[in-house]
Amino acid sequence: MAASNSSSDKGTRNLVIGMVVFVVLIGVIFSFISNRSSTTAMVPASVSADDGYGIVINPTATPTVDIYLDYQCVVCKNFEIINGGYINEIAAQNKAKVVFHTMSFLGAESVIAANAAACAADEGKFLEMNLALFQNQPTSHDSGMWAGDFMKRLGNSIGLNSATFEKCVAEGDYIDWTRNVAQASASADVNSTPTVKINGKEIDRNSEYMDPVKFRAALAAGGVK
Amino acid sequence: MVSELNKGIRSKVLNLLTSNQPWLTLLGRLILGGVLLTAGALKVGKPQLSAMSVRAYEILPTDIANFFGYVLPWFEVALGLLLIVGAAVKVCAILGGATMLIFIMGISQAWARGLSIDCGCFSAGGVVDPGETNYLSSIIRNIGLTFIAIYLYRFPKGRFGLDK
Questions:
Q1: Strand (E) positions, chain B?
Q2: Domain coordinates in residue numbering, chain A
Q3: Which helix (H) or strand (E) holds B39?
Q4: Total-model pTM
Q5: Using CA atoms, how far apart are residues B65 and B55, in angstroms rounded to an integer?
Q6: Which residue of B has its CA nearest to A190?
Q7: Global ipTM
Q8: Fold of domain A47-221
């Protein structure tokens, strides 16, 4: 009697161990598959695989300014408030090739926002959407605020009314592309947002990000006239 | 005189650690398992952030860091679950203790090299402002957890565990 009890205890134990290991292995495989980049993903017209799948403004200008961001990142919002006007000026006046890498490591609503920004890029309104997203950043990650038809309404508010745009945000045309951006940014060893690089070299994180005068000086030193 | 006193204290501590051993093993399992399960569960849904945390230590080549970033949260979940139910406690104690030692070394080298990173222990991670690092408290926590792992390795059998 005691022997059969102990062998059934052992069976339960081994079953539990087996189940935990199995579930975790499935989880690992799922993490890899659901985050791998896709060679068949639809990409926005202004995107170049050579530029880490980022959204490129002024493709022929020099120098190259890479901006890595996540739309749910609070520091990125503060960075936009401080330096967004100047970056938009550089973009508008063709003073540099500006590449926006819309990362999405902070959660599902970062993916929704990056998709909407890409949809806006196709309509020539990336910078406007970029600003609108930061201006409407929820106070917590994946709050639910950016779900549903929020992106359609946000687009409408800045004059994006075309059927193409509304379909793009409703159907998430560029959701797969966001994974390509994420993988390329990971391979580029970007470990924080925002990250700003001029000709591939990061500006000084301790002083040049959140001071508009020093930020301008850093870009000028990198060749932005 | 002092050594007599030390001996007295030491035997009291040893007595305390062994006389209630099955309950202490349960407590240790719940603490180490609970921390691992929480840490893992907060990260499994955000593998990109987890990969970023591992990269920010600047030890491993980018591709290998990304690989560990994806695997680590699930590994922590597995160890946490097994410790809580008390299955394969000895093996989990070895793996958990080794993991804690690696974390202590990783955080220490980041501190020593002057990197400003979040340890990525729970959900956050990556490069942060120099004022936002908390290396010392993370190291102290992991040292405490390492001692729990050693205790569980020495006394793996406790109350309400599947190991018989």
A1: 117-118, 126-127
A2: 1-35, 47-221
A3: helix B21-44
A4: 0.85
A5: 5
A6: B52
A7: 0.82
A8: Glutaredoxin (3.40.30)
